[in-house]
Amino acid sequence: MRPLRAGIAATVVVCAALGGTPSASAAAPLPARMADTGGGSQLITAEAPRASSTSGTVTWWDRRSDGRWVKAGSAPARFGTKGLVAGSGREQGTNTTPAGLYDLPFAFGTRAAPGGTSVTYRRVRDSSWWCQDNRSRSYNRWTQPRPADCRASESEHLADYGTQYAHALVIGFNYDRPVRGRGAGIFLHVNGRAATAGCVSVPKDAMRRILTWVRPGRAPHIAIGTAGGATAITKY
Question: For the chain, is the Cβ count within 10 Å smaller at the N or the C terminus?
Answer without folding.
Answer: C
